[in-house]
Amino acid sequence: MDRRNLYFAIFAIFGILIFHGFWQQSQTVEAVPYSRLEEMLKAGQITELNIYDNYIIGTLKEGAEGNKQVVVANRVEPRLAEQLSQYNVPFTQVYESKFFSTLLSWIVPALIFFGIWMLIFRKFIGKQGMGGGFMNIGKSKAKVYVEQQTGVRFEDVAGVDESKAELQEIIDFLKAPEEYGKLGARMPRGILLVGPPGTGKTLLARAVAGEANVPFFSISGSEFVEMFVGVGAARVRDLFEQARKSAPAIIFIDELDALGRVRTAAGFGGNDEREQTLNQLLVELDGFDPTVGLVLLAATNRPEVLDPALLRAGRFDRQVLVDRPDKAGRIAILLVHMKKIQLDEDVNAEHVADLTTGFSGADLANLVNEAALLATRRRADKVAMEDFSQAIERIVAGLEKKNRLLNPKERRIVAYHEVGHALTALALPGSDPIYKISIIPRGIGALGYTMQRPTEDRFLMTKEELEYKIAVLLGGRAAEKLVFNHLSTGAADDIAKATDIARNMVTRYGMDDDLGFVVYEENQHNFLTPQHTTGPYGCSASDNTARRIDASVRRIIDDSFALSYRIMERNREQLERCAQLLLQKETLLEAELAELTSDMERIVDMTQPESEYAPS
To answer: Which of 59, 118, 164, 191 is most buried by its number of CB atoms within 10 A?
Structure first.
């Protein structure tokens, strides 16, 4: 019998006893008026009287009042009783019961204070503070998922084929662990899923549990760390104890960096609790026997901050990279999510994948949902390709601001600026094709935008290609300088991106002949390696070297701007033609732009501009 049924039985017994007492009293005791009591006394029907402050109890002779044995009457003052007796009218004295008022005066304040105390107790010490109260300190809050509850299989996870191949071995081990012991091999004690946010690490772990059909213990790393020292360590022990009882099973710790951040020598206070929890996890991993059918999975997008003790051999033996998908992976992910919506015939998953370079799995899922919402908003029966195009623009450039009105001068500047980007990209070899130009404001500060459509995924870029990319970024400013002979604030973001590329060319890629093949600035996003940066450029560069770096960055920017300016000069007619049509239509697509620029002068191969332009 559980606790709730036990309480119900106790209350039922008390209720029956109280009802029985009232029923028995009603059968043997009769309440009568005081005048009736006097008559019964004169008739000799009462053998005994008990006089109290407020009432009188009399014992009747046998057979005097049927089945009744006792009569009760409220007591009346003697002088008043003598005065009323002469009128031959029944009278009795009534006393107002103060039982409930007295009871409420004591109980209600106590209940109020008890309720306040319980509220404070639950908030600061209860479930949200110490895992369910004092009696449950250290109890793990891990949620157990079986295969029917996860509902995720490998076929639902697309775009990460290499990661699924790594984890398939774990599924085979959980299904037949004896097969892996024939040659003396053992499964890794811990598998760490590493990758940027939104790439499907948690979804992949749930798919492993779904494929293996085993219990799935899932908990976040932040749920281990609490206010009191020792609570997190107790939770780690409790989690592994629960998992051993349910073996074969999978333990999944999400956001491991919240628990396993690198330890420092100055650990005290709240940090000491985190370190004690991490120490307990290390101890559990040392005593972790994978032959019992337990698999430990963890996920993080910040492996560079993890403690080295977690990543050594024998603990998290294997790191599985779950990276952003390539074009084939994006197509597979899109097809998985497109099955859930009604698609029009013109929707092409490959074309959508071309426009979504760099998108993660979560971004693509959000894209499909945004396209479906846009189609629903326009009350369409199916989701068309135009809905996907608008959804991509909304995610990349921000929400369209049709009510943001620009004055004619600003619209003209923005139009020439955006066409400058497009013409520079069209003139230079190897640049991504222009997909769309628009002067409709989007997002927080974008007054216009130029979208390019990469034809393939790129992993390496040459020095010339980086210089061309800078030139495309500066093409808008070059067009403004040529047409209006002044500079505006519209190129601020372009200049920031161009400067960042030029600085990386000099300090990280070793593309400057004067400075040589030397790294002056370390990568700030390395996986599984700590960051150690000193000096003005992330290294121990001298002041003289820093000045040379600044000069090299300036030289790359100036040369790229000169190239963009010369392209604008040679294609001035096409610049004017495209800008005028853009001012009329506000948007130019790839086909329209190709028709307008069919006669423009393109550069086949140019590593250096013929003549430099020095901006005034």
So the answer is: 191
